[in-house]
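Lecture 7 notes: from sequence to structure.
We start with the chain below.
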Amino acid sequence: MAAVDDPDPVRTTGSRLLPVLPLDDVCLFPGASLVLVLDKPAALAATQLAERSGGQLLLLGYRESHAGPRDLQAVGTVASVRSIQVLAPVEHRVELDGVSRARVETLLGVDVLIAEATLIEEGDEGDEWGPAVEALARYLHAHADLRAFLEGQRRSADPMSWVNLACQHLPITATARQKLLEASAPERCLKISRGLDALLRKEHAT
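Predicted structure tokens for the same chain:
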């Protein structure tokens, strides 16, 4: 599988075998949560396999080309399965909590994919998270309803989780969101702080 272009070195640790849940136009970031309604047999089978074998799976977005079921991004997020609820015989509601980013080394399987994935350490965001959280506070001041929603999605007390929530939920393209997921924590903080302020300026100008 082709590696994602990443100019920044990443620190990785330990490989694991995890069921893969492909995603369309959405990312899950560490410290955040995601609710999905699954109606495809392979997606449900991957989630149920995860529930039976450690409770975790790997969420991977499709590439822009979306040339087939294996045309997936090389960087995704390891998630814990918090709950699975049956809505209908072919529909299940699943709640997922983001744990860690991971890079795919090998993809196995046909219908249900299994990834050999290496965990990516977030790195030390240092002081970079401060300006990013301040930019988010400015944005939320203008969007009060969004704050309550993000608080309900937060799964970590770490200030960096606010940055990850902003990356996951604010109105940016799927391609931009994937690039944020691939970025190191300091780079992600820098990009989201600039992006939030740019969104505010654009909104005030209209």
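Points to note: Residues 12-120 form a domain with the Archaeosine Trna-guanine Transglycosylase; Chain: A, domain 4 fold (CATH 2.30.130.40). The two ends are 43 Å apart (CA to CA).
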